[in-house]
Amino acid sequence: xxxxxxxPLSERYASREMQxxxxxxxxxxxxxxxxxxxxxxxxxxxxxxTQEQIDELKAHAEDINYDVAKERxxxxxxxxxxxxxxxxxxxxxxKGIIHLGATxxxxxxxxxxxxxxxxxxxxxxxLVNVIAELAAFADEYKDLPTLAFTHFQPAxxxxxxKRATLWMQEFLMDLEDLNYVAGSLKLLxxxxxxxxxxxxxxxxxxxxxxxxxxxxxxxxKMGFSACYPVSGQxxxxxxxxxxxxxxxxxxASAHKFSNDIRLLQHLKQVEEPFEKTQIGSSAxxxxxxxxxxxRIASLSRYVICDALNPAITSATQWFERTLDDSANxxxxxxxxxxxxxxxxxxxxxxxxxxxxxxxxIEKQLLAELPFMATENIMMDAVKAGGDxxxxxxxxxxxSMEAGKNVKVEGKDNNLLELIAADPAFNLSEExxxxxxxxxxxxxxxxxxxxxxxxxxxxxxxxxNKELLGLKAEIxx
Length: 476
Prior knowledge:
Strand order of the largest sheet: 1-2
Number of strands: 4
Oligomer: single chain
Strand content: under 5%
Radius of gyration: 31 Å
Largest sheet: 2 strands, antiparallel
């Protein structure tokens, strides 16, 4: 295998579980389930199909004779008819009723919907666990003050836990979108070569009422609530667009999360997991690069771009169908899911092992806090008899002087000393120091975390409790 290209999505990023969902084995087993569902439906609606034939099909639903199918495909150059033939070799009594009245898209498109539905279930499972891990992190650090940043410039403090709720909320939006789209997926059903069910009109002697029952019966047998009411030969490719947009949304949320972690790691406030034997740089032995977060960002960009493929494919289909969707679709849908699977595993791994450095956080916060505290200091000085307008101007001037000391001279922030030395404020340095409790400046952040977890996150985790407890394994 070292002499040919192998997708890194399979080798490095996606889980075995997601890879199986998009495997040939999953596809062809589903084809056979669909052929059984069709035959059972036709029998139940009165066609001359025997229980013996149905039983024969069921007996060979799992033991696919791939060698026969591959050999046949070399001759006929048609994958569906090759597998019809191979199934018929195993089921000689049922050979004549396999795929009866159907076109290739009956197995191809219905299987694609089933595969995407199963893949969305796995994505949901991992997304719920990411939210759960972030919830535990936010709860643990809801009271820990830290510098907030606007424009990546120091701003009014928040808490470490409150910042985590911002990541969580975006993932929660993705979960809501996923639930809606996954819940709205329908099968194509069996609608024939141009969606008119003309072949069934022939099979059932023009009995429209009986034919109306075919799609609902197939949907029920395959675990779906319904089929799309109308179609051409294929289900609308807009379905793929909606599904991949869910993945792109998750990728955007993951990318933002990973960017914040990378910036925080630069500040030495928070670090992603770093294993004892891990090497950060081939040249700089001391380095601890945020490689997991960087990989999240890298794969997320891929998924965001990949979501354009189904949209363009949907836009460029002609009339009842063209085949320029096929090659693009089998790449973009599968690889989008494989990539998002890897992204969510990485998110799980990162959040589960996040390391927080409270002393560094406190030191950096205290270095900027005098600037944040100037409003409170000014109010205290007014209470002591000062003039607000004059004090505002003095604080502005002293803040600029202190800023110059920090940025030009490389000194510590001495704003408090400058204010204490100014008689206009009539405040001692000790009195000023009493204003430097960081918890006074985080507003309602701790309370917001508590309410968000209780009102928004806990119900979701309770509703999906059977999905919880997942741990991610990272290959590299």
